[in-house]
C-alpha cells in the first residue's frame, strides 16, 4: 500500500514540476559531466602530443563520445588522429571542433587541453536536446592546428559539407568574441651552391649563405610596400658547416601573415621574388616548399557571436566583442567555408602569453577548469539559441544551401 502511494506521489510531483529550460538542461549536463571534462583536460595537459601524433588524445575523445552514445561516421578522416562522430538525425548540423595538439618541448602552452575539453563538453551537453531542438550534434577531432592545419584537410575531405554552424573556444588570458585572425603562409627555402675553400679557392665556390643574406635584405626593404599590418618573419635554420668552407647548402624558414587572405597572396608573391633574387644574384639553386596549408583570416558569424555573448552572460561572464586580429588559426579556413565562431575563453595566467612555457603552467588551475565549464556552456547554449531562433536558423540554412 505504501509503495503504491509513493509511486502516486512521485508521479503527481513530476506532473507539477515545470520542465527544465534549454539553459537549465545544458547547465545540468555540464555539471553532470564536470569530473569527466576536467579529468579529460588534465589528462591532455599531463600527456601532451604534438601535431599529427595526438593518438592518445584522439582515443580519449573517442572513448568518451562512444560511451555518450555518439555514432562514428562510416567514413572517417584520413588522418589517424582525426575523428568524426554524430548524435541526432536532423538535417540541421552543428559542429564542435575538438582541437588537442600541443607544442614541441613546451606542451600545452597554447591551452588546447582547455579548447578540447570545452568543445567536447558542449557536444555532451547539447546531445540530450538534439530531438527537442531538431539538430544533429557533430564532433570533429581536429589535429595539427599548430603545424600544417588539420581542419583544412577535413574541409577538403568534405567533413564540413553538412555543417550549418561550427564552433570552438580558444584558451587565452582574457575573454573576447568576434576577433579575427591573421592569414598565414609558411615556407621552407633551400639554397644550393658549390663548396670551396674559403681562403685558397673562394672564387670556385657559389655561396649559399650570400643568397640568404640578399633575400633577407630584399625582404626587409620590401616591407614598406607590403599591405598594412603585414608580418614577414625569417629564421636561418642552416647557415653553413665550417667557417673555412664556402657554404653550399643553407636553409631559411619564412612565415608571412596578414589581416586578410587576399593580401596574403600579394605578400607571398613579393616575398617569393625577394627569395629568388638571392638565388639570381649568387647563381644558387633555390627550392621553396610550403609548410602545411595556408591559413585564412578568421571571419566569425555575427549572429553566432551575439548568441555566445548572451550565453556567457548567463554564466556571469561579460564578454566584450572585438574585431582585432589575434594570431593565426586554421579555424579561419573553416569560417570561410561555414558560419563559425572561435571566441577566446580567459583564465588567470599571471601575465603569461600563449606559446610560452609559463602559460602551460596555468592550464589545469581552478581558473582554467572554470574556463572549460563556462566555455562548454557558452558553445552549447549559443548553438541551442541558433537552432531555436527562427531567423538565425534560416540564415544559416540559406548560407548552407547557397554554398553547397
TrEMBL record:
Residues 186-279 form the Peptidase M20 dimerisation domain. GO terms for cellular component: cytoplasm. GO terms for molecular function: dipeptidase activity; para-aminobenzoyl-glutamate hydrolase activity. InterPro entries: Amidohydrolase (IPR017439), Bact_exopeptidase_dim_dom (IPR036264), Peptidase_M20 (IPR002933), Peptidase_M20/M20A_hydrolases (IPR052030), Peptidase_M20_dimer (IPR011650), Xaa-Arg_dipeptidase (IPR017144). It comes from the Bacteria. One of its GO terms (biological process) is folic acid catabolic process. PANTHER family: PEPTIDASE M20 (PTHR30575), XAA-ARG DIPEPTIDASE (PTHR30575:SF0). Belongs to the peptidase M20A family. This is Peptidase M20 domain-containing protein 2. It comes from Brevibacterium sandarakinum. The lineage of its organism: Bacteria, Bacillati, Actinomycetota, Actinomycetes, Micrococcales.
Amino acid at each position: 500500500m505504501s509503495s503504491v502511494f509513493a509511486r502516486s506521489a512521485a508521479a503527481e510531483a513530476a506532473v507539477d514540476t515545470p520542465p527544465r529550460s534549454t539553459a537549465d538542461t545544458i547547465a545540468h549536463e555540464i555539471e553532470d559531466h564536470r569530473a569527466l571534462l576536467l579529468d579529460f583536460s588534465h589528462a591532455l595537459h599531463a600527456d601532451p602530443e604534438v601535431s599529427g601524433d595526438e593518438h592518445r588524445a584522439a582515443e580519449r575523445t573517442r572513448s568518451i563520445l562512444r560511451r555518450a552514445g555518439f555514432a562514428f561516421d562510416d567514413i572517417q578522416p584520413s588522418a589517424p588522429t582525426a575523428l568524426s562522430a554524430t548524435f541526432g538525425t536532423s538535417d540541421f548540423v552543428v559542429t564542435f571542433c575538438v582541437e588537442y595538439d600541443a607544442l614541441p618541448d613546451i606542451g600545452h602552452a597554447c591551452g588546447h587541453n582547455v579548447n578540447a575539453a570545452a568543445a567536447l563538453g558542449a557536444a555532451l551537453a547539447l546531445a540530450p536536446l538534439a530531438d527537442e531542438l531538431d539538430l544533429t550534434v557533430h564532433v570533429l577531432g581536429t589535429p595539427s592546428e599548430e603545424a600544417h592545419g588539420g581542419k583544412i584537410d577535413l574541409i577538403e575531405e568534405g567533413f564540413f559539407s553538412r555543417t550549418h554552424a561550427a564552433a570552438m573556444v580558444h584558451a587565452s588570458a582574457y575573454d573576447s568574441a568576434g576577433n579575427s585572425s591573421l592569414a598565414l603562409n609558411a615556407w621552407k627555402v633551400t639554397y644550393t651552391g658549390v663548396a670551396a675553400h674559403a681562403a685558397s679557392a673562394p672564387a670556385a665556390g657559389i655561396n649559399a649563405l650570400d643568397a640568404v643574406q640578399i633575400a633577407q635584405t630584399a625582404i626587409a626593404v620590401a616591407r614598406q610596400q607590403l599591405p598594412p599590418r603585414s608580418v614577414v618573419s625569417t629564421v636561418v635554420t642552416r647557415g653553413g658547416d665550417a667557417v673555412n668552407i664556402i657554404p653550399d647548402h643553407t636553409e631559411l624558414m619564412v612565415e608571412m601573415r596578414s589581416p586578410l587572405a587576399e593580401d596574403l597572396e600579394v605578400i607571398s608573391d613579393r616575398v617569393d621574388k625577394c627569395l629568388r633574387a638571392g638565388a639570381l644574384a649568387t647563381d644558387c639553386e633555390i627550392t621553396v616548399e610550403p609548410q602545411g596549408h595556408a591559413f585564412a583570416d578568421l571571419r566569425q558569424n555575427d549572429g553566432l557571436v551575439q548568441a555566445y555573448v548572451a550565453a556567457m552572460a548567463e554564466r556571469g561572464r561579460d564578454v566584450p566583442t572585438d574585431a582585432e586580429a589575434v594570431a593565426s588559426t586554421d579555424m579561419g579556413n573553416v569560417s570561410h567555408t561555414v558560419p563559425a565562431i572561435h571566441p577566446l575563453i580567459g583564465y588567470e595566467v599571471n601575465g603569461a602569453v600563449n606559446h610560452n612555457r609559463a602559460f602551460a603552467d596555468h592550464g589545469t588551475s581552478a581558473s582554467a577548469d572554470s574556463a572549460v565549464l563556462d566555455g562548454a556552456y557558452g558553445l552549447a547554449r549559443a548553438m541551442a539559441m541558433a537552432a531555436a531562433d527562427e531567423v538565425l536558423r534560416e540564415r544559416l540554412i540559406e548560407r548552407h544551401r547557397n554554398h553547397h
